[in-house]
Amino acid sequence: MAVPLLSVHLRSLGISHSTIGILNSLYAGLQLFSSPIIGSWSDIRGHRFVLQLSLLLSSILYFVLGAVTAVPVITITRIGLGLCKHTQTLCRTLLTDVACSTNQLEVQSRLVSYGGVGFMVGPIIGGHLAELENGFHYVCCAVTLFFWINFAIVYFFLHNTQHEHKENNTILERHTEETSDVKINTRIWNKKKEDIQETLPQARSRTNFPSSDIFQALTHLWNVNWSVYWDVFTLKFLLGFAQAVHYQNFSLILKEEYGISPSGIGYTISFQGLVGAATGFLTGWMGRFYKKDNDHVLRMLHGFAVLALSFVFLSLAPNLTFFLICLIPLSASSSLLRIVTSEVTLQRTESDQRGSLIGSGQSMSSVARLIAPLCSGLAYDMFGSYGISLLRMAVPAAAVALCTILCLHQRKEKLS
């Protein structure tokens, strides 16, 4: 609700585009840095408790973000959110504790689906609230309310299973000590104690935070065999960079270039999400046209070509209607490229290394999202919307050039 409108709100306070980019990059960097710390602490203190604390602190910080207009306070608030707002990851982690092991995939899929609905509905609600006087304040108040509702759900309906393991372990140790004095054979109790202790590292291994944190990202990237994966990871980085530049300035362009209302911005963002979701369902059908493209290189070439052309047409759009029409191929190609690059990674990877390589690919996207806001903010301040247009077009154009080289190299190998 608040994130799509944050850049517009900051601009209304007179903050420059480069400063907005620095704030967004700072937030992303702090998220990467703090994720392993919060993850390790949640393994020790309990996922339920840390999630509750994260929800509570995030609600307070969002309320402050909507109530103040001083740039230093806004900066401190964004720093606080970057350090403690790990609610989505903590929710996924807590689900692994409370859900049955046989239903893990189904539960996680439902969580992703509900999250997708939220990403489509949230911008619409936030857009309508933002049209009121001091609208961003009401948006942040609504976000605060939702955090409190989530806090209540976690408090009343979820249980911390890891602490149950620890309590069982403590009881077992006490019982073992008491029975040792009367010479009862403790081997049975020790065996039960070992069984319970064995469940703890398994639970922790399931609750490791994803490779979006900076340390695991660097480790993944260091261990990658770049001679095999350099091309697909480079394309993944370029895709993530282009998407980050686009969404970083999307609301600002609609507001400053076309004068669209906040509710219109919300509907437009939701429309992009709907197109992307529909494209995901059509990926299998589109694969029928690429039966000979076993390496997916041709699909990536066409996808990046459509993405580059979409950015060109967006930059030349004479009116809002044409601009919105151009969003259809842009969202469709972005969704298709995310799927195809993941398929290429899995295709080249052994079954026992897929998790690590997927994590490395996610790390490339994380690095792109970290750099893009700063670059786009500087480009906007120096060259205006034309700077953003050139940056958006240059990145997929470089990807098209790389895919063309890969296609030519592939043909040479087939002919030789």
UniProtKB/TrEMBL annotation:
One of its GO terms (cellular component) is membrane. InterPro entries: MFS, MFS_trans_sf, Tet-R_TetA/multi-R_MdtG-like. GO terms for molecular function: transmembrane transporter activity. It is a multi-pass membrane protein. Gene3D superfamilies: MFS general substrate transporter like domains (1.20.1250.20). Its main location: membrane. It comes from the Eukaryota. SUPFAM superfamilies: MFS general substrate transporter (SSF103473). It is found in: Membrane. The chain crosses the membrane at residues 53-76, 111-130, 136-158, 228-245, 265-285, 386-408. Pfam families: MFS_1 (PF07690). Keywords: Membrane, Transmembrane, Transmembrane helix, Transport. The keyword Transmembrane applies. This is Major facilitator superfamily (MFS) profile domain-containing protein. It comes from Coptotermes formosanus.
